């Protein structure tokens, strides 16, 4: 079945979703004095915005919350529009070849899109989130069904790890990877 709103050119439609990492994880933070602190988490999320036509990753956000908030959604959109280097954007670039498109081509900074496809999750449907995105980007927002991961095949493909581990895209898996950032923060599964 063909989607009702099809992508006819790059940046015409983008998908935004959050995925839950439901395995025990330790975040290692390093302060200015070089002291490392280990913070255990039972659950965290990452948000990703994907361009639908070619599958490019546009924006990324790590949400260290039990449930992603409206601020997390706005952070993903802000990260997709801005060409400024972000601390947490380094997490997605921990493996060779995993980069955001605006890191490769800064000329795409503040490139708008026509349709933002999201699910009916609380963080996406909040009035402040919808109003801010429409006012800033000027796009239409398409609310799809919740838990319909098969609608987001581009999103699921991008969220796979290079080693073949899939991060919670409709199926439960274990992720034993370690990702580190250049700002003194590391994620490690327990």
Automatic annotation (TrEMBL):
This is Uncharacterized protein. It comes from the Bacteria.
């Amino acid at each position: 079945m063909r989607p009702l709103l099809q992508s006819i050119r790059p940046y015409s439609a983008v998908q935004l979703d959050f995925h839950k990492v439901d395995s025990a994880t330790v975040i290692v933070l390093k302060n200015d004095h070089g002291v490392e602190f280990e913070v255990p988490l039972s659950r965290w999320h990452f948000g990703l915005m994907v361009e639908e036509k070619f599958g490019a990753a546009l924006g990324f956000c790590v949400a260290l919350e039990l449930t992603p908030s409206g601020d997390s959604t706005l952070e993903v959109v802000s990260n997709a529009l801005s060409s400024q280097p972000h601390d947490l954007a380094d997490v997605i670039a921990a493996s060779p070849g995993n980069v955001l498109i605006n890191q490769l081509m800064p000329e795409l900074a503040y490139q708008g899109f026509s349709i933002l496809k999201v699910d009916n999750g609380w963080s996406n449907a909040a009035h402040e989130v919808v109003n801010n995105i429409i006012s800033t980007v000027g796009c239409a927002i398409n609310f799809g069904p919740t838990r319909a991961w098969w609608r987001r095949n581009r999103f699921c493909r991008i969220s796979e790890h290079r080693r073949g581990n899939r991060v919670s895209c409709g199926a439960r898996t274990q992720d034993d990877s370690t990702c580190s950032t250049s700002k003194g923060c590391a994620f490690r599964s327990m």
